Automatic annotation (TrEMBL):
It comes from the Bacteria. The keyword Lyase applies. SUPFAM superfamilies: Glyoxalase/Bleomycin resistance protein/Dihydroxybiphenyl dioxygenase. The keyword Coiled coil does not apply. One of its GO terms (molecular function) is lyase activity. The lineage of its organism: Bacteria, Bacillati, Actinomycetota, Actinomycetes, Micromonosporales. This is Putative lactoylglutathione lyase. Keywords: Lyase.
Length: 203
């Protein structure tokens, strides 16, 4: 089964971004950064989603991100599906922090259970076919609205949503042009139907 070993965020200030993702959020080797000045405006077409066990953990991560310069796009709150909020990192990446639980059962901890890269795509069904043909295994699928692929071990989970739906969930306008400022590490070098670039994990 094909999988994502790590994500590479292309940023203007790698040192600051490294501190934010590794030290502030504790994303270890699953999120890497490298310098890029590629032009980009508006919504970049993806969100980085951090899944945690309880609301207190979500609050701890969001508070730490904001203290380190992130901007709140959606305040953390309870919803039909659990608890969570959305921030924009200093480099422009949109980060969602969410828990399926609405109640705390332990002291707060900045502990991330799963990392999910959510791609906003033009045609969910077509992009799903592309990734299945590339060797990905579908874990969950809801017609043409949502697809989640299986992710073994501590690799990064990938999901597909309509671009407008993902932007709405993040609290931003769907318009955007230029580079995604994202590289997916794990598969053979390629570019998917929506312009997301892949490179081999060893690169």
């Amino acid at each position: 089964m094909t999988s994502i070993e790590h994500l590479i965020l292309e940023v203007a200030d790698p040192a600051a971004a490294e501190t934010f993702y590794a030290d502030v959020l504790g994303l270890d080797d699953r999120v890497r950064v490298r310098r890029s000045d590629a032009p980009t405006t508006g919504f970049r077409g993806f969100t980085l989603s951090l899944i945690v066990a309880q609301p207190a953990n979500a609050d701890a991560l969001i508070d730490a991100a904001v203290a380190a310069g992130a901007t709140v796009l959606k305040p953390a709150e309870r919803s039909l599906f659990g608890y969570g909020g959305v921030v924009q990192a200093p480099d422009g990446t949109i980060v969602t922090v969410a828990s399926s639980s609405k109640k705390d059962t332990a002291p707060a901890a900045k502990r991330i259970d799963d990392v999910v890269i959510q791609l906003g795509v033009a045609d969910v069904a077509a992009t799903k076919r592309h990734y299945v043909a590339s060797g990905f295994t579908v874990g969950r699928s809801f017609g043409s609205k949502y697809v989640e692929f299986e992710a073994p071990g501590r690799t990064v989970t990938m999901s597909l949503l309509k671009r407008k739906a993902l932007a709405k969930a993040a609290g931003v306008a769907a318009d955007g042009t230029g580079s995604h400022r994202l590289v997916l590490g794990g598969a053979a070098p390629a570019t998917d139907p929506d312009g997301f670039v892949w490179e081999a994990a060893s690169a």
